[in-house]
Amino acid sequence: MSQNDLEHGRAIAERVERFVRDVVISYEKDPRATSHGPTDELVAELRGLAREAGLLTPHIDADGSHLSQRATALVLQASGLSPLGPVALNVMAPDEGNMYLLGQVASAAQKRHFLNPLVRGETRSAFFMTEPAEDGGAGADPSMLKTVAVQDGDRWIINGRKAFITGAVGAAVGIVMARTDSGDGKVAATMFLIDLPDPAVRIERVMETIDSSMPGGHSVVVLDNLAVASDQILGAPHEGFRYAQVRLSPARLSHCMRWLGACRRAHEIASAYAIRRHAFGKPLIDHEGVGFMLADNMIALKQAELMIDWCAGVLDTGALGTTESSMTKVAVSEALFGVADRCVQVMGGTGVSGDTVVEQIFREVRAFRIYDGPSEVHRWSLAKAVKRQALSQNLAIKSAYRS
């Protein structure tokens, strides 16, 4: 990555920050920002304003090239200063991750049909992987996929149920992950691109969840004899698990970027409150119990920033970065939850009210510790990496002694 790319990203980020602070924040109390995310009407209005400002999908240049991950981090952090910022700028999950995956794997025809409208902010998308726990389906372990796709001539028939599908309501593009038979007896999966709505894709219910920033909310979806043409397979058949990692490593990092911006905003609000609010004869910030919490926030925010930049640098080398993104997802999600929690505590009753956005940020960041892999699953994966490394080092030491 060149210094010019980083400077380009920094310049975009400065414009994004001004737009979010000057325009987007004023919409946070809009009644169209519902418990299931902003309505499509609000999304269209905000994206229209971003388009007018020349900031729609700002991490993808006009020629279709993608900013480096380090430059993208600057832009997405700025977008996250409001929960509505990523929505307005078209850098919100799941669309941002889906655009990245399509850009990496989709054919030219698939990009024209599915990707280009997403980049233009004209459509939304959903990623159909997670399945209901009561069905014994895939969650943090995608190999438990119960949804099945069976080939029937030049098309595939897909049946199953999916859960926690973000943005399924109102989506025009779907990426469906289903179990397929590769013929070698191993568990395999294939990704399929679908146009929505489709009568074979039925929203069973929209779930009530702790977070409320993503358009369409999170749904349980039934796939009932969904027919998909073979030319709508994303990439190669039976490579779904590999493509999931192509998507998930940068997507985990993108979440870290956006929520770092949100927690910076929460820290700003809590700090201003601590200066204005007095107790026992002096401003709250002059009480060590409060001042130290805000000092801890400064430390945690900087540590999160550095961790994100480090992981982004690894991804920019072309490495898959699975271990690095797992480490960053755990460290940043837990550090930012601590920041949001301290902001609520500093602000007392006001912190748990809807009078400021701090309460929403706290809820959103709590959910962040679960989606794209809960901390415990990432730690388990990292522990296996530690074991492999330790065994390798032990064998090397034994070999050295024998020689």
From TrEMBL:
<dbReference type="InterPro" id="IPR006091">
    <property type="entry name" value="Acyl-CoA_Oxase/DH_mid-dom"/>
</dbReference>
<dbReference type="InterPro" id="IPR036250">
    <property type="entry name" value="AcylCo_DH-like_C"/>
</dbReference>
<dbReference type="InterPro" id="IPR009100">
    <property type="entry name" value="AcylCoA_DH/oxidase_NM_dom_sf"/>
</dbReference>
<dbReference type="InterPro" id="IPR013786">
    <property type="entry name" value="AcylCoA_DH/ox_N"/>
</dbReference>
<feature type="domain" description="Acyl-CoA dehydrogenase/oxidase C-terminal">
    <location>
        <begin position="239"/>
        <end position="386"/>
    </location>
</feature>
<feature type="domain" description="Acyl-CoA dehydrogenase/oxidase N-terminal">
    <location>
        <begin position="9"/>
        <end position="122"/>
    </location>
</feature>
<keyword id="KW-0560">Oxidoreductase</keyword>
<comment type="similarity">
    <text>Belongs to the acyl-CoA dehydrogenase family.</text>
</comment>
<dbReference type="InterPro" id="IPR046373">
    <property type="entry name" value="Acyl-CoA_Oxase/DH_mid-dom_sf"/>
</dbReference>
<dbReference type="Pfam" id="PF02771">
    <property type="entry name" value="Acyl-CoA_dh_N"/>
</dbReference>
<dbReference type="InterPro" id="IPR050741">
    <property type="entry name" value="Acyl-CoA_dehydrogenase"/>
</dbReference>
<feature type="domain" description="Acyl-CoA oxidase/dehydrogenase middle">
    <location>
        <begin position="126"/>
        <end position="208"/>
    </location>
</feature>
<dbReference type="Pfam" id="PF02770">
    <property type="entry name" value="Acyl-CoA_dh_M"/>
</dbReference>
<keyword id="KW-0274">FAD</keyword>
<dbReference type="InterPro" id="IPR009075">
    <property type="entry name" value="AcylCo_DH/oxidase_C"/>
</dbReference>
<dbReference type="InterPro" id="IPR037069">
    <property type="entry name" value="AcylCoA_DH/ox_N_sf"/>
</dbReference>
<keyword id="KW-0285">Flavoprotein</keyword>
<protein>
    <submittedName>
        <fullName>Acyl-CoA dehydrogenase</fullName>
    </submittedName>
</protein>
<dbReference type="Pfam" id="PF00441">
    <property type="entry name" value="Acyl-CoA_dh_1"/>
</dbReference>
<comment type="subunit">
    <text>Homodimer.</text>
</comment>
